Amino acid sequence: MRKTIIAGNWKMYKTISEAIELANGLKRELFKLDAQDIDIVLCPPYTALSEVSEVIADSNLKLGAQDCFFKDEGAFTGEISPLMLKDVGVKFVIIGHSERRQYFGETNESINKKTKAVLRHNLIPIVCVGETEEERERGLTFQVLDDHIRNGLKDLTEEQIGQVVIAYEPVWAIGTGRTATSTQAQEAQRYIRDLLAKFYNKEIAESIRIQYGGSVKPENIVELMQEPDVDGALVGGASLSVDSFAAIVKRANEVKK
Ligand code: PEP
Question: Is the full-model pTM beyond 0.85?
Answer without folding.
Answer: yes
